[in-house]
Write a structure and sequence with these properties.
three-stranded antiparallel sheet; about 425 residues; mainly alpha; binds carboxymethyl coenzyme *A; globular
């Protein structure tokens, strides 16, 4: 919807209103009309697409999926419901949910030959390295769902990715600890099945602990989608060239791995363990504030949230509940709480509006469940796959979609003549 215009140079550009949130200046014709580019490294002021999936109000600490607040979804729904919601736009009724869950359940097995891929990795390979490789390799196995112009194939690929990610992630873990891979068990829930494939062994029956299952499901919900973050934008950019969905999701996994993004959950728990006890917190706060020290408080700060990350609020409470129900007392949680309190009262963090983000407390829960830190970002990738495929589908169906091709401000040498090596 165009309501007004903004004058740039001597031309008026349309200003578009979304359903909520800041208005957007449509500058698609700007270069053609002015001969100038806009400059916005990090896309701090740039809307790269139109989307109806997820809305964030960073000043108020609000996160909505298809209009539903994240805390309501985390407390009352299930990961399968949220996956359906993100993919289809509306919450499912019971029949739709059963059908969707059944479809996902029936796609959880991996092509048997994929198991041999794992054996090519070193035992000490980071599981995110394995995820990048194995997910990218899926396109070599599922040729009947790589035609992106066919909406049915796109949906089959989306279902396959959501369904197979827990199997791939669990196998990455099993490989690292030298235990046999477990096949999926279709009688279990999405999350219960993942826990069994990860922590079960063929020699014994595995009982899914409902406390762990529910905590894990909540973590999956909280990581399902998050607007146009770096990995989602990577998936969209890769997909904009017409690349197949498996390749696009592998690209998203690679981007997520970085410590400024999904890798922060691993880094945050490592940091909390390194701090070790509350008395050492001031030393780390001082380091985070020191411009000459590259150290940052991991799990703190966010490009969009300038208030509490609503996901961190849910996770902070969930961490206490899980530890309590499992009868675990972890000093890391005390360190996290104390660090949060000290940072929130510190002028540096107040002035820069740095609050705990989703990665600050998730590690405490994942560690209590029994995951090594190297698996944390894998779990993020597993859950975010839902958002990635939903965003990718939205992009492919968008009539305005074009190959993503940013321009630049060139500051290199101007044209000069080649000089043969002997004359330089
Ligand atoms: N500790 C100390 N100082 C910080 C921190 C932090 N965690 N985060 C930001 N700052 C400072 C930063 O030094 C800068 O100061 P100045 O203006 O004096 O140069 C100011 O705050 C703004 O930071 P920025 O890096 O320009 O902000 P950004 O929007 O580009 O970066 C961020 C956002 C998330 C990358 C950053 O806050 C950060 O590195 N946080 C730690 C890593 C982390 O927890 N990442 C997870 C993000 S949430 C989940 C996800 O995306 O996967």
């Amino acid at each position: 919807m165009t309501d007004s215009t903004l004058k740039l140079g001597d031309k008026d550009y349309p200003v578009r209103k979304g359903s909520v949130g800041p208005e957007v200046v449509d500058i698609r014709k700007f270069y053609g009309q002015s001969g100038m580019f806009t400059y916005d490294p990090g896309f701090t002021s740039t809307a790269s697409c139109e989307s109806g999936l997820t809305y964030i109000d960073g000043d108020e600490g609000v996160l909505l999926h298809r209009g539903y607040p994240i805390d309501q979804l985390a407390e009352q729904s299930s990961f399968m419901e949220v996956a359906y919601l993100l993919l289809n736009g509306e919450l499912p009724d019971q029949g739709e949910l059963d059908k969707f869950t059944n479809t996902i359940t029936r796609h959880t097995m991996l092509h048997e030959q994929l198991a041999t891929f794992y054996r090519g990795f070193r035992r000490d390979a980071h599981p995110m390295a394995i995820m990048c490789g194995v997910v990218g390799a899926l396109s070599a196995f599922y040729h009947d769902s790589t035609d992106i112009s066919d909406p049915h194939q796109r949906m089959v690929a989306s279902h396959r990715l959501i369904a197979k990610m827990p199997t791939i992630a669990a196998m990455a873990y099993k490989y690292s600890v030298g235990q046999p891979f477990l096949y999926p068990d279709n009688s279990l829930s999405y999350t219960g099945n993942f826990l069994r494939m990860t922590f079960g062994v063929p020699a014994e029956e595995y009982h899914v602990d409902p406390v762990i299952e529910s905590a894990m499901d909540k973590i999956f919900i909280l990581h399902a989608d998050h607007e146009q973050n770096a990995s989602t934008s990577t998936v969209r950019l890769a997909g904009s060239s017409g690349a197949n969905p498996f390749a696009c999701i592998a690209a998203g996994i690679a981007c997520l791995w970085g410590p400024a993004h999904g890798g922060a959950n691993e880094a945050a728990l490592n940091m909390l363990r390194e701090i070790g006890r509350p008395e050492r917190i001031p030393e780390y706060i001082a380091r985070a504030k020191n411009k000459d020290d590259p150290f940052r408080l991991m799990g703190f700060g966010h490009r969009v949230y300038k208030n509490f990350d609503p996901r961190a609020k849910v996770l902070s409470q969930a961490a206490a509940d899980v530890l309590d129900k499992l009868g675990i007392s972890d000093p890391v949680l005390d360190t996290a709480r104390e660090l949060e309190q000290i940072a929130l009262k510190d002028d540096y963090f107040i002035e820069k509006k740095l609050y705990p983000n989703v990665d600050f407390y998730s590690g405490v829960i994942l560690s209590a469940i029994g995951f090594p830190t190297t698996m944390f970002t894998v779990l993020f990738a597993l859950a975010r796959t839902v958002g990635w495929v939903a965003q990718w589908n939205e992009m492919i169906s968008d009539p305005d979609q074009k190959i993503g091709r940013p321009r630049q401000l060139y500051t290199g040498p101007t044209q000069r003549d080649y000089v043969p090596v002997g004359q330089r």
